[in-house]
Amino acid sequence: MKKKLYTALCIVMVAVAAVVLICATSGDDIMTKKNGGYIVNTTKLGTEVIGYNGPTPLNIYIKGDKIEKIEALPNDETPRFFEMVKAGLLNKWNGMTVKQAATAKVDAVTGATYSSNAVKENVRLGVEYYQKHKK
Fold first, then answer.
1. pTM for the model
2. Which CATH number fits domain 28-133: 3.10.450, 3.40.1350, 3.30.70, 3.30.390?
3. Which of 38, 47, 78, 106 has the lowest tally of Cβ within 10 angstroms?
4. Contact 89/95 with Cβ under 8 angstroms?
């Protein structure tokens, strides 16, 4: 009985170690290095950040510790309202240093408040991730 319990415990420990290893290396799909800069993808970072109809993931392009651009990734927001967010909000961080972007008070787009707030939170999460993980 003790031998079976020990064997089962060893199997569980190996499985847990494998899961931890997989999770520890999965960060590569959050931030990638490209053309001397970084792209932070908030798809996994912002799973709990909900706009009007769901998550609003972004790609945040950073070079020389400055935001180059922010691009919206596919989402389920109402297209008419999210177009307003893309046109009136995503460029607000362009040219800011990462430090400035982390604390910037950017106004929401009128008529698309939920989507705007979700985008702002995704930017905050993405910049925070960059600051902690850049090499």
1. 0.78
2. 3.30.390
3. 47
4. no
